[in-house]
Fold:
Amino acid sequence: MENTKPIIAISSGDINGIGYEIMLKGIADPHICEICTPVIYGNQQIAREHLKTMDEQLQNMQFCVINSAKEVRHGKINLINVYPDNTPLQIGKSTPEAGHASFLALSRACDDLKAGSVDALVTAPINKENIQSDKFRFSGHTEYLTQMFGSGKESLMMMVSAQMRVALVCNHVPIAQVPQYITEERILGKLRTLADSLLNDFRIRQPRIAVLALNPHAGDNGLIGKEEQDIIKPAVKKAFEQGIMAFGPYSADGFFGSGKYAHFDAILAMYHDQGLIPFKSLDMDGVNYTAGLNIIRTSPDHGTAYDLAGKNIANAQSFRHALYMAIDLLRVRKESADINRNPLPFKEKEDRPAKTVPFRGLDFLNKPAENGNEDN
Structure:
């Protein structure tokens, strides 16, 4: 019988951070291999060194070391060595070697994803500074993956939890540069991607989207800024005219403080901290999802946390949620594809004279059925 469990690529991230700890804790549950086939892109020796810092029952974790994703063993924790055993490990510190290793893991996982050898990607945290090189000139995973797997529409950084879904117009952009990224076209593109993802990835019919303002008090009618009047309101209006249930702009402080976020299916924030501070204040175990790509990529919603690394105190819950969400999204997309496969061809309606039926009033309700039976 053909195996139907999805193959999930897991890039190991920064080897000196908490990536290995949350990853290994997250897949230690035997139940994981019953619902998916995990493939770690990292190094067995580095993994063993991290296991030494963790609970005793995890230190005997077994890996099925393979050379490529085509050799995966279902029911096992697969591991592909993508950087050498002698890669310097300095837990809790940012090093160039750790950055290079995190890029090798990400790059190899993406190659296999592009080749169709794996079904989805879950990324452990990277250090956005030490990963920089001639081959990686991006401000984060989202931007790199957009270049690798962009679908032609706006990609979207979205944080997902049980409390809310928050998407961003600007991802990793310095605050001083945010206004130049706030354009009507960009907001419209993000709203289209967000609405499409809510419908097709989260199965929300006619999703309601709240759009946040850029300036305090939503600009106070131009007194504290004109972006709301000149850019954001027109973008929201155009989105609504295109069938997207977008509302706003709302002043961020009042919007979150009053609990209005609970009345919407998603929120489009203008910049990183505007959306992510309230999101993480309510739930630090959410998932970072990149919408608008041809592939599925999820990630825990936190960073490398060098201060926690090697102490066996990192919380793996966000990683688990990221893994489960990747599996769920694969199922939803497959079901959607199955439903829409081979639709009935569209046929123009023939021009025929309308058939008129004389109005008989309600007398027919009192007549017995011709066959003598009531409707069943």
